[in-house]
């Protein structure tokens, strides 16, 4: 029987899955960096870095929102990476990303 593959064989679908995997992985990396910065003692946190992390998270969420209709269908490695990153984002990123609705203004 034919089971959908996490890594599609067809080149266009495979490239899309791998690009989405990179997007999800990158989002998770920024979330972890932001969490590390937020957990530094008061007075040693870098607002410059925190602002950069917020901006990168918002830009990634905007990108994901734009391609949300294309994410339907059999799950690929891309959807799995994005789902994991969004779960991490909702747990650690704060109200500036958790409360975003469709086409919300960027923080």
Order of helices and strands: HHHH
- Poorly predicted parts: none
End-to-end CA span: 47 Å
Number of helices: 4
Number of strand elements:
0
Q: What would the average pLDDT be, to the nearest integer? A: 87
Please give a handful of descriptors for the protein shown.
single chain; mainly alpha; 0% strand
Give a concise summary.
With 107 residues, the protein is mainly α. The chain contains four helices and no strands.
Kindly describe this structure.
With 107 residues, this protein is mostly helical. The protein has 4 helices and no strands. Helix 1 packs antiparallel against helix 2 and helix 1 (11-38) packs parallel to helix 3. It is elongated, with a radius of gyration of 16 Å. The model has no long low-confidence stretch (mean pLDDT 87).
Topology of this structure?
Layout: H1 11-38, H2 47-66, H3 77-92, H4 95-98
Helix pairs in contact: 1-2, 1-3
């Amino acid at each position: 029987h034919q089971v959908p593959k996490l890594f599609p064989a067809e080149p266009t679908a495979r490239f899309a899955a791998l690009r989405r995997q990179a997007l999800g992985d990158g989002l998770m990396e920024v979330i972890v960096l932001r969490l590390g910065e937020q957990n530094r003692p008061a007075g040693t946190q870098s607002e410059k870095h925190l602002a950069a992390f917020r901006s990168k998270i918002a830009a990634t969420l905007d990108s994901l929102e734009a391609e949300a209709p294309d994410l339907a269908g059999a799950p690929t490695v891309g959807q799995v990476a994005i789902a994991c990153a969004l779960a991490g984002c909702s747990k650690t990123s704060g109200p500036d990303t958790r409360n975003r609705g469709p086409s919300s203004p960027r923080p």
